[in-house]
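Much of what follows relies on a compact textual record of a protein's fold. An example makes this concrete, so a full record is given next.
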Amino acid sequence: MTTVPFEPRRFRTTAAYYSRFRVPYPDALIERVTARTGLRPGDRLLDLGCGPCQIGIAFARLAGADVTGLDPEPEMLETARDNAAAAGVRAELVLGSSYDLGPAFAPLKMTVMGRSFHWMDRAATLQVLDTLTEPRGTVVLFGDRHISASPAWRETMESVSERLSPEEMRAERQLRRGPDFGKHEEFLLRSAFRNLEHIGIVTERVIDADEIVGRAFSMSVTSPQALGDRTMEFEQTMRSELAALAPDGKFTEIVESNALIAFRD
């Protein structure tokens, strides 16, 4: 199956937007995963492709996990340090990627990934994690599923992105959405972590144009880095079309924040 080429600096201009504007994972979801997996205070947890380490920090704060965050982007790790300090927890933050996994990370009770697994060689990553994880350990993939958005601001964001983002970025996104890319579940079912369960929590959120534009800038295909000298044009176009959609500046979204728990066979 297809693998996305590794680019360690893909998110270098998104760190300022990621923590503020991505859909947050509810504490209730972290607590339910903690209870279902039997995670205990002091258990070692790896937040792989951690970005600003929102998930790892949540497990340190709510479950007392001993957290390591691994990410190839220095700006993301700087944001993660600020986030950990603000939450009053400790997290070891390491510069690197899934290709740098090795015995120093063992033994792991849990590896979590939030919207990062699709950037990796998924089969190879699971093989390495098998060697680093305790017999009763787990891999947990976090994500979100958008159920509805009103008015149709997601369609507007997609339309503007298609018009203004670089062609190579659009092609890469289509690759990840294509039939040859494979679902995460397929890779997990072929690994040592083949017993799968899904937990989801549905919430409704009210957001504004600033949050929508900020979320777009947090994504690789419409990051300031990707847009380059079209960044201002992108923002102005987005704000103009959003204002036409909702003159009062209010938008809603219904989102399922979810966790796919992969237990060992």
Remarks:
- Strands lie at 44-48, 66-71, 91-95, 108-114, 133-150, 195-207, 251-263.
- The mean pLDDT is 93.
- The first strand starts at residue 44 and ends at 48.
